[in-house]
Structure prediction request, 158 residues.
Amino acid sequence: MKLVFIVSLFLSLNCVFVLSEEPQKGPNEDILNVFIVAHSHDDTGWLRTVDRYYEYEVSYILDTVVASLLENPDRTFIEVEIAFFYRWWNDQTEKKKNDVRRLVETGQFEFVLGGWCMNDEAVTNYVDEINQMTEGHLFLLNEFNITPKIAWHIDPFG
Prediction:
């Protein structure tokens, strides 16, 4: 089964992407491989307060992601910032926590970077970066017995 999407880019340039569930054998210059990575990037303080982000966005995102992953074992998601996840986690029932633990064990829900937040890169002090990373990693170690193996840092501001 092939799906075709037409994507309009900046200069009204139309590109056709063919998504195939069938793996391609060998390189093919006529095929553009597109990787869609479902991930979090929830600022712990930018345009809104932490409470506003959590109440109006993040809690709904995590609820929807977990429900979606439970519906389809082929779906995956990567979570980056632990500050919001920690708050969401503490609001969950034991059943929901066990569902998430199972998703983490199967690799459907993966923690990457694992810091309390995704810190800015240019104006932070290394001690602060280490402390916030340690805080997030300790939570993941205590709750899931894991340490992130991949760093995902897409917030180069600062």
Observations:
- DSSP finds four helices and four strands in the chain.
- The first strand starts at residue 2 and ends at 8.
